[in-house]
Design brief:
The protein is an all-alpha fold. The chain is built from five helices and no strands. Keywords: Coiled coil, Nucleus. Its main location: nucleus. It is found in: Nucleus. It comes from Campylorhamphus procurvoides.
């Protein structure tokens, strides 16, 4: 009732609001119900937004974890690549030394239908040697046997 309302009592004492005006300003029950429904709807939307925010935060944490894992994997791969590059460089230097030793050892040996071994024809020379040793039955005549033996003697001192 209005008699229990501190505002109504206070306003009535001051004389600012007459009794009729107090009755006219009284809330209608439908207004209260509408406000209550609006509050319920707002609370529901707030709850949905909080739930959506929680889901988004969980997704962000998961993404951050995945990004962190990917960064660690990338760092590991980069370190492995660096090690492989260093190994490749060492192997390339060793191969270069071996090819120079082979060129020096075979400089005086002439293969049929080929120029003397050099850096320019090194691959072709090695391919010819490989073919000669894999198909030795084709090189069974005495001249080729002597050539193969002289090649064996020339490369004998090369340390691999």
């Amino acid at each position: 009732s209005l008699s229990g309302c501190p505002r109504a009592t206070f306003a009535g004492k001051k004389g600012k609001i007459s009794g009729d005006e107090i009755l006219n300003t009284k809330f209608k029950t439908s207004d209260v119900l509408e406000n209550d429904e609006e509050i319920k709807q707002l609370n529901k939307e707030i709850s949905e937004l909080n739930e959506s925010n929680s889901e988004m935060e969980a997704a962000m944490v998961k993404l951050q974890s995945q990004i962190s894992t990917m960064e660690k994997n990338l760092k590991n791969i980069e370190e492995e690549n660096k090690i492989i590059e260093e190994q490749n460089e060492a192997l390339f230097l060793e191969l270069s030394g071996l090819s120079q030793a082979l060129i020096q050892s075979l400089a005086n040996i002439r293969l049929p239908h080929m120029e003397p071994i050099s850096e320019q024809n090194f691959d072709a020379y090695v391919n010819t040697l490989t073919d000669m040793y894999t198909n030795q039955e084709c090189y069974q005549n005495p001249e080729n046997k002597d050539l193969l033996e002289s090649i064996k003697q020339a490369v004998k001192g090369i340390q691999v």
